[in-house]
Specification:
The chain has one domain: 2-enoyl-CoA Hydratase, Chain A, domain 1 (Alpha-Beta Complex), CATH 3.90.226. The two termini are about 25 Å apart. By secondary structure, the protein is an alpha/beta fold. About 35% of the residues are buried. Helix 5 packs across helix 6 (about 160-170). A hairpin with a 2-residue loop joins strand 1 and strand 2 (about 30-35). The chain has 8 helices and 8 strands. Strands 1, 2, 3, 4, 5, 6, 7 and 8 form an 8-stranded mixed β-sheet that branches.
């Protein structure tokens, strides 16, 4: 059994009532996918995500992202599931697309980043324990994943693989404009305020979706970008059973 196999074998099946980090809504000609948390670290894997995505029959899918990243293999699986879907994919970074979430953002045929949102790219990293030979294997595995991700950035971006590798090694944060300049987004989306005169019952603009009910949060901390990113790194170092990007 390889190192990666041993790592994946430690994944536990989703617990009853496990918190989901994504939401998929099929709404006729357009479906909305919302990824608003750490990817795959709440007992819900990319396998379930891909199964639900395959059921979407809409001709257009909008993927809304606000995530600090998570499991690198699941993130790549989500990227590929979106890239191979028959719908036109629009990815939209609403707040933060860090680590492997920035890779998922590259799955869009159209890639938007909302004004004031950010991206962060860095090398794959994670937690491992064992003898020297296994730790060397783990280091090789991390380097392969980093090179793989750099190739995805280079395919869509304005720099080559070596340029992205340098930026990843430095853990580079990108503003909305910088993400477009580097080719990791196509356009900065400037939000437009809704016209109250065009509002429906309760003052909600006509056609606007009801906000989803917030999931039960087992973490006593409330959601915030910096705090969630810090907690994700703690899990990567001490509690994660898989690679993280």
């Amino acid at each position: 059994m390889t190192l990666r196999d041993r790592m994946l074998a430690r994944h536990k099946p989703p617990a009853a009532g496990a918190r989901s980090w994504y939401e998929i809504r099929n709404e006729g000609d357009k479906a909305v996918v919302r990824i608003y948390d750490e990817i795959s670290w709440w007992g819900i894997s990319a396998d379930q995500f891909a199964r639900e995505l395959a059921l979407v029959t809409a001709s257009e899918i909008e993927v809304q992202i606000n995530s600090p990243g998570g499991d690198v293999f699941d993130g790549l699986a989500i990227y590929n599931a979106l890239r191979t879907h028959t719908a036109h994919i629009t990815t939209r970074v609403d707040g933060l697309a860090a680590s492997v979430a920035s890779v998922i953002a590259q799955a869009g045929d159209t890639r938007l980043i909302v004004q004031s949102a950010q991206m962060m790219i860095h090398e794959a990293w994670g937690y491992a324990a064992g003898p020297a030979a296994e730790l060397r294997d783990f280091a090789d595995l991390l380097e392969r994943q980093t090179a793989n991700i750099a190739a995805i950035y280079a395919e869509r971006g304005t720099d080559d693989v070596d340029g992205f590798l340098e930026r990843m090694a430095a853990e580079t944060w990108l503003s909305d404009v910088e993400a477009v300049e580097l080719g990791l987004a196509d356009e900065v989306l400037v939000p437009e305020r809704k016209d109250p005169a065009n509002a429906g019952p309760g003052g909600r603009p006509v056609g606007q979706l009801d906000p989803p009910a917030p999931p039960a949060d087992p973490d006593p901390c409330t959601f915030d970008g910096a705090g969630l990113l810090a907690r994700s790194k703690v899990r990567e170092m001490f509690g994660s059973t898989a690679l993280a990007d």
